[in-house]
Design a protein that fits this description.
The protein is an alpha/beta fold. It folds into three domains: 106 residues, Phosphohistidine domain (Glucose Oxidase, domain 1, 3-Layer(bba) Sandwich), CATH 3.50.30.10; 110 residues, PtsI, HPr-binding domain (Enzyme I, Chain A, domain 2, Orthogonal Bundle), CATH 1.10.274; 333 residues, Phosphoenolpyruvate-binding domains (TIM Barrel, Alpha-Beta Barrel). It has 23 helices and 16 strands. An eight-stranded mixed β-sheet has the order 1-8-7-3-4-5-6-2. Strand 7 and strand 8 form a beta hairpin. Helix 1 crosses helix 6. The protein is globular, with a radius of gyration of 26 Å. The structure holds phosphoenolpyruvate (PEP) and magnesium ion (MG). The site of phosphoenolpyruvate has 11 residues, from strand 10 and helix 17. The site of magnesium ion has 5 residues, from helix 17.
Length: 593
């Protein structure tokens, strides 16, 4: 492109507030976009073996599939797979790839991708339609081999160049868990919603994030600089001098506003009329604890234990966990810590679960369901938590409970573990509080029964909204339906609070709505006792609580409970929120500059 590149403005959904300026870095592993990097000459043989292993696994897989189809009498399908096998067995392709790796000293995937592209070109030139349609087979084979190659190489966000704005098709929670805050300025993705676990992790790390952006192939745009506005969902490629200046100033303003808010650390989370709220933190990593203390968090309301281990190859041992939990509990200096047992599954797979393919993982063997199956893993986590309870105020929280039998089974495993440890003279707290997450509609509707068996309830609105409205929380195409203001969700929250009160146990909200000041009055008005939010959002939510009157909030909740649509409720919340000082707005992703 000659001369200065043109400024390009793209729009997406704001996920994590903040303004970033950096250089684009493409991180993805789709068929269209495979990372290319150089390898050392000593690594050549290993790269070649990786290719051979991936090819062999792909061939075995196709052979198995073919046998299955033959057994089922699906001859046409079996014949297609046979042609796939022939292509994979083509010695000229394998030889060429191996030669290229040796010659160019590039990683296998990029060489493989180039070979596939060459194949594609050949096919495109064929005029016969039937033959041309075989292109789809090439794509299928390429996808299969690349999937196996991906498993054998570990491409991480831990070591991207400094000052990078990461562009990706989508990010897995384990990707964001590995992301290095020092070098990553922002994330821009094509997929992923606000409550996806990758987004939660980005928020924990304070990395501005804009999702649902339809970005061009960056290679075709000469782009050295990009601005990401995570407050409004703007992404600007090749900004002009004046745009750059404007955003540098905005970034300074935002930092100053946040610093001012952050000084509320020693103030109480208390409404204007003296109603005290427990304001705790959702924690995924150790380095959030300093912030929690600095901003005066009342404890850890939700420790997502699985995040510490998402990037490992196997479940951690009891001892490993015991040390992690003790360190966390001791660091909390007597403040309560709620440890949630592993919530693996859904979009949280990491390396632990790579092989567990399910068609619909969000409705599959996730969280407590998985732990009740993997009994030894569950018991070793419970043992580690029970032992850590000797060092501070620890509670256990079970995720994704869908009804009383699951809760009772989990409690009975816990009891078994406690008795075993007692028999072996381990020290532990006399009483360990047990909580149940309410994030499945069936649990919300039967929470009268669950509340009788628990010491506290914790509402996971991220999942509760998704499961109530039958909307995938990470699917941008459906995000217009993913609405925490849907009357069904508000009424469920009210029901849960009423049952909590009837049974004399507190109710926490720990989903992302708790961190959004637009919802603070409503949640307090509905009678929620505790809010648990990412540490970074403690000052913002504390300020929102301090601007709320509990009398007004109760009236607001009553009015809202009588409303019939998400839209009506959203408008009522916005009217209430706009009474608060505008300094909160930009930080709450409502920047009006
Ligand atoms: C929730 O679902 O609201 C919740 C807090 O759990 P997670 O986001 O980890 O699924
Ligand atoms: Mg959840």
């Amino acid at each position: 492109m000659a001369g200065r590149s043109k400024e390009i403005r793209l729009k997406g959904s704001p996920i994590c507030a903040g303004i970033a300026i950096g250089k684009p870095y493409l991180f993805s592993f789709t068929q269209e976009n495979v990372p290319e990097f150089s390898i050392a000459s000593e690594e050549v043989e290993e790269e070649i073996s990786r290719y051979r292993r991936a090819l062999l696994r792909s061939k075995n897989e196709v052979q198995q599939l073919k046998k299955q189809l033959e057994y089922e009498g699906a001859w046409e399908g079996a014949a297609i797979l046979d042609s796939h096998l022939q292509i994979m067995q083509d010695p000229s392709m394998t030889t060429k790839i191996e030669q290229e790796i040796r010659l160019t000293l590039k990683n296998t995937e990029s060489i493989f991708q180039a070979a596939i592209k060459a194949y594609e070109l050949k096919f495109k030139k064929i005029t016969d339609k039937v033959f041309r349609e075989r292109l789809i087979d090439i794509h299928d084979i390429a996808r299969r081999i690349l999937r196996y190659l991906r498993e054998s190489v570990h491409i991480t966000l831990a070591d991207v160049p400094s000052n990078s704005v990461v562009f990706a098709h989508e990010l897995a929670p384990s990707d964001t868990a590995e992301a290095n805050r020092q070098s990553i300025e922002a994330f821009v993705t094509q997929n992923g919603g606000e409550t996806s676990h990758a987004a939660i992790m980005a928020k924990a790390k304070g990395i501005p994030f804009v999702a649902s952006v339809n970005f061009p192939v960056l290679d075709s745009v000469k782009c050295n600089c990009v601005i990401v506005d995570g407050c409004r969902g703007d992404v600007i490629l090749n900004p002009t001098k004046s745009t750059l200046l404007k955003y540098k100033q905005l970034r300074e303003q935002l930092i100053t506003q946040f610093d001012t808010l952050a000084q509320t650390g020693n103030l109480e989370a208390e409404t204007i009329d003296g109603y005290k709220v427990r304001l705790s933190a959702n924690v995924e990593m150790f380095n959030e604890l300093d912030m929690l203390h600095e901003y005066g968090g009342n404890g850890i309301g939700l420790f997502r234990s699985e995040y510490l281990f998402l990037t490992q190859d196997s479940f951690p041992s009891e001892e490993e966990q015991y040390h992690v939990y003790c360190r966390m509990v001791e660091n909390m200096r007597g403040l309560p810590v709620v440890i949630r047992t592993f919530d693996i599954g859904g979009d949280k797979f990491g390396k632990l679960q790579r092989t567990r393919g399910e068609d619909n993982p969000f409705l599959g063997c996730r969280a407590i369901r998985l732990m009740l199956k993997e009994r030894e893993t569950f018991k070793s986590q419970l043992r580690a938590i029970v032992r850590a309870s000797a060092h501070g105020d620890v509670s256990i929280l079970f995720p994704m409970v869908s009804g009383l039998p699951e809760l009772m089974e989990a409690k009975s495993v816990l009891k078994e573990v406690q008795e075993e440890l007692r028999r072996n003279d381990f020290v532990m707290a006399d009483k360990l509080k047990v909580g149940c997450m309410i994030e499945v509609p069936s649990a919300a509707i039967t929470c009268d029964a669950l509340a009788k068996e628990c010491d506290f309830l914790s509402i996971g609105t991220n999942d509760l909204v998704g499961y109530s409205l039958a909307v995938d929380r990470g699917n941008p195409a459906m995000s217009y339906l993913y609405s925490p203001t849907h009357p069904s969700v508000i009424r469920l929250i009210k029901m849960i609070v009423v049952e909590g009160n009837r049974n004399g146990i507190p109710v926490t909200v720990c989903g992302e709505v708790a961190a959004d000041p637009r919802y603070t009055s409503l949640l307090l008005g509905l009678g929620v006792h505790e809010l648990s939010v990412a540490s970074r959002y403690l000052p913002l939510v504390k300020q929102a609580i301090r601007y709320t009157s509990i009398v007004d909030a109760s009236q607001l909740a009553e009015d809202i409970l009588a409303m019939a649509t998400a839209q009506e409720i959203q408008e009522a919340l916005m009217r209430k929120y706009e009474e608060q000082p505008s300094s909160l707005h930009a930080l709450a992703r409502k920047g009006n500059y």
